[in-house]
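quick one before i forget lol
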Amino acid sequence: MPNICRVSEYSEYESFASSHEKGHFLQSERWARLKSNWGRVFLLAKDSDGKTIGAVSALLRPLPGIRRSLMVCARGPVCDPGDEETYEALLRALIAEAKSRRCYCLRFEPELLSDDEKVRKLLPALGFLKMDGASGDRHRTVKASALLHDRAIGDAIQRGDRLYDFRGVSGYGDEKSPAYGIYRFKKGFGGDLVALAGAYELVFNRKVNDLTKLGQSLLKKWRRVKV
């Protein structure tokens, strides 16, 4: 089993995560700096010789007043695709961190394809539940997002990036679906459709988790009425 340790020097973490083939911006220290009001966790996995073989980061969104947090890990862990031992060790260590920091839930969005064996076996074995979500939009006809994506893709090409992640699509394959426009918009840039595993939750405090989601739902409804 690899040795899992907390990161004391961010440069060591960033050097590994940013250069690895499975590295992702959402697993970078740069992303954590953008979320300056969130807590952060950085872990490294090392072999018996002390060589870094894996990494994972997560952000913690605190709930005011009750000393509980939501831990979010997106597009991690970062390690060789075939190194299942390191992958599991990092994920188990992250769960332990979530518990020790009094998190009410760990939300996990892995960089895994939907048919990956880890999705079918490892995640359920660790207690993760598949979650669903939805979002609204405003000023849809302005299409400013097309220009923003075009600029971002151009910047990515200039940097030499190998991948531009559009995140999720809805309405795939069904032109009658009200969400088909999301798929058409993103597909219009010429990318490939890749089915990832989606988002999972490991809930440690069901009551706090349910109340938080209820509060978020009521807040969204209130904002719609206010507008």
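fyi Helices lie at 10-19, 29-34, 84-100, 117-126, 144-159, 180-187, 206-226.
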